[in-house]
Amino acid sequence: MNVHWHRRDLRAADNHGLAAAADPGPVLPVFVFDKDVLQHGSSVRVAYMLDALSSLAEWYREHGSNLLVTRGDPREVLPALAEAINAEHVLWNKDYSGLARERDAEVRQALAEQDVRRGSYHDAICHEPGSITTNDGDPYSVFTYFGRKWQDREKEGPYDAPDADELVDPTALSIPDRWSTTLPSLDDLGFDEPDATLQPASTEAARERLESFCAEDIYRYDDRRDYPADGCTSRLSADLKWGTIGIREVHAATVEAAKSADTDAERESVEEFQSQLAWREFYTHVLFFSPEVVTENYREYENPIEWREEPDHLSAWKAGETGYPIVDAGMRQLLDEGYIHNRIRMIVASFLTKDLMLDWREGYDWFREQLADHDTANDNGGWQWAASTGTDSQPYFRIFNPMTQGERYDPDAEYIKRYVPELADIEPEQIHSWHELSVTQRQRLAPDYPAPIVDHSERREAAIEMFEAARGE
Ligand code: FAD
Fold it and tell me: Which family, according to the similarity comment (predicted)?
């Protein structure tokens, strides 16, 4: 009998490690609520994960098995389980972040000490770190060439889910008491119910999102992906983060969509979407080869960047009370849904680092707490891009103007009004020129909505000076 240790792969289909564990099986599926991981958890993420686990357990029950769970340290509980049930092989899928790699090496060692075979599989991305490199064999630090090679590389197809007869029913085994088939509640794990309303987390829900996206929105993705009111992006980020759907299944669906495209523009639109999947892999590779980016700037400056410390500004940004409507709409979408549209993530991150001149790590920490799709590699990559400290990042002197961004990408202020009800009855032109209105005008139009907390033009100059000082100019 084999054990498959689920981690960020909360699905049965298109799961490389699980497919390997079932061939030949039988396989017992397990999940460990790792105390070290929970320590860094948040209500939003743990709630999303529990929802995904509950649907995974349901899938196993429908197939005559069940998901066995426990709380503890995988370095201790997995070898003990393997010994108790006389498991031949413990398998899992690789996690490419630094801390997870350290932990996995220790689990591997603990199993080896008990003579249990162990194996880890490449699963979360199409192309493993180290498989796409420069011609000299180095990891890429800019996306363009990486992206081209990624597109050209042949991709594996999805793995089948195990059959019922390849699975073990844990009730038929003598399992140590600490393991159970009952999932803990959020409260049991020490978390409150999140305020945000999260999208359903399951393979079924992920497949519905993928299917409906590939039927229509993928063909206008290239044109409309930057317009947050349209909602034409896939919303698959949390599924890919928690593995409720496999990347091979997602990619295969896009290949089919490309075949059904009617025009070159539609085919290019599918490619544009595939290119976002490649960005995700690019950042995973960056994190793998430079694990220090979690806390350190990727790009070196001559001198330290003198970020400001302004707790009031940070609080206003977190609450969506900056007086910049597009920024506030984004920050409130985050609080409402545990999600923000990509263009708006870029705008709010630019605002924090360039207009408020606050350290990108403050923003990253807040996103880590509030995003259901928080992914160390993508979140870090996005923040360092916006802060001009990352790989291939936004040049420090090209600073988003939050008002013109709002005007361009949300011209009718539909997205803004959805999340900032104080502005619901105001004309879009007034919303997009909020910073230019007089105090009296603002008071008359939306007395409950704040005035801008900083002057963008002044801060733009100050931010450029801050970066020039860091560059030693
Ligand atoms: P789609 O546009 O439908 O894209 C499909 C998938 O491609 C996404 O689900 C995601 O897996 C991947 N993807 C898309 N854009 C990017 C990108 N720029 N970088 C890496 N992968 C991408 N993405 C996360 O998954 N988790 C994060 O924690 C995260 N934090 C971010 C923080 C900042 C400051 C910024 C600027 C971007 C961040 N992103 C993050 C990237 C991007 O914003 C989200 O992946 C995207 O908005 C998710 O919505 P979607 O699934 O509808 O995207």
Answer: Belongs to the DNA photolyase family.
